[in-house]
Specification:
By secondary structure, this protein is of the alpha/beta class. About 20% of the residues lie in helices and about 25% in strands. The chain has helices spanning about 45-50, 65-70, 75-80, 100-105, 115-120, 170-180, 200-210, 235-255, and strands at about 5-15, 25, 25-30, 35-40, 60, 90-95, 120-125, 130-135, 135-140, 150-155, 160-165, 185, 210-215, 260-265, 270, 310-315. The strands form two sheets. Strands 1, 2, 3, 4, 5, 6, 7, 15 and 16 form a nine-stranded mixed beta sheet that branches. Strands 8-9-10-11-12-13-14 form a seven-stranded mixed beta sheet. A hairpin with a 5-residue loop joins strand 10 (about 150-155) and strand 11. Helix 7 packs parallel to helix 8. About 50% of the residues are buried. The model is unreliable at about 220-230, about 275-315 and about 315-325 (pLDDT under 50).
């Protein structure tokens, strides 16, 4: 895997708060010789350090300012200014309008405003915003979530592409942005204002003609027709609820999208290749919240594929869920 090839690593996918073994929304995108941290939900700063040094992050992109997508910017600020990292210019921070003042509001504890701009070189997003970071092109589109929110498309120099919905309900701008992308990372927190159901995520993936659907931000609220868990409570009951929600989401998405569907298990990593069929390699099953292998539609292990016909390679990274007890 060249450091110029496009890669996505899931740092966390929990909603609306971090769970044991699963941080909130956050992803590491690598390619074109650079590393971009996409969404900084609670717990993702620690997970980020499993995969790269904090001083090696070339830019940060934030979809919207809800805490489960941005809260770890606060502690990243302290790391950048006070943790003895190698001297470097402020890190580019791409986010919705007002992001600098929002951070300063949390960080300021005296009469003088916190020096947010010493840590971050802020670029406020707008519909159609394009940024070039190394060999990657980042395109942002406004999507419908409630507060100002954006979806992201990342294209590399070889023609590989991935799209991240952020949090939003189905909308034409997301379909346009995701058109023909190789990997579509879409939230499935539940049908309603500002969010996708899993079936809606599948429908958007089908309409956009994407290569593979990766479901994230799957809520664990009880399904109205779901049977009672029938015993178990506390941590065990929570694990079972999350597992049922993920299995249900993958099954529902399969009703509207005929391609490959995977859940964004934390630690899952994809190498994205342009225009090739998408297969996920089976890895070590995480034993904290899920009992099924990643890359599986029904809980059975995905068939490992290799060679030039594989559009994706996926694996559980060392230090993923399986080492959290």
């Amino acid at each position: 895997m060249s450091d110029r090839s496009l890669r996505l690593t899931v740092l966390g996918s929990a909603t609306p708060f971090p769970r044991p073994g699963n941080a909130c929304s956050g992803y590491l995108v690598e390619g074109g010789g650079v590393r971009v941290w996409v969404d900084a939900g609670t717990g993702t700063l620690a997970e980020l350090q499993r995969h790269t040094d904090l001083g090696d992050i070339d830019a940060v992109w934030i979809s919207h300012l809800h805490a489960d997508h941005s809260a770890d910017l606060l502690t990243y600020f302290y790391a950048l200014l006070y943790a003895g990292l190698a001297p470097r210019p402020p890190v580019p921070l791409l986010g919705p309008a007002g992001i600098a003042d929002r951070l300063a509001g949390f960080l300021t504890s005296g009469p003088e405003r916190s020096p947010v701009e010493r840590a971050f070189r802020v670029q406020e997003l707008y519909d159609g915003h394009v940024a070039r970071i190394g060999g990657l092109t980042l395109t942002s589109r406004v999507v419908e979530h409630g507060p100002p929110a954006f979806a992201l498309r990342v294209d590399d120099q070889d023609g590989a592409s991935l799209v991240y919905s952020g949090d939003c309900e189905p909308c034409p701008s997301l379909v346009e942005l995701a058109r023909d992308c190789d990997l579509f990372l879409c939230e499935a927190d539940g049908e309603g204002p500002g969010h996708h159901s899993a079936a809606q995520a599948g429908r958007v993936a089908a309409e956009a003609g994407v290569g593979r659907l990766l479901l994230t931000h799957v809520g664990s609220r009880p399904h109205p027709n779901a049977p009672s868990p029938g015993g178990g409570g506390g941590r065990v009951g929570e694990q079972a609820a999350v597992m049922r929600a993920v299995d249900r989401a993958v099954a529902e998405a399969a009703l509207t999208f005929a391609g490959d569907i995977t859940h964004a298990d934390p630690g899952l990593r994809f190498d994205v290749l342009p225009g090739a069929p998408a297969y996920a390699l089976s890895g070590t099953a995480p034993d904290v919240l899920f009992g099924s292998l990643p890359g599986s539609r029904t809980g059975a292990p995905a068939e490992p594929r290799s060679g030039s016909d594989s559009g994706f390679r996926a694996e559980i990274c060392p230090g993923g869920w399986s080492d959290v007890r």
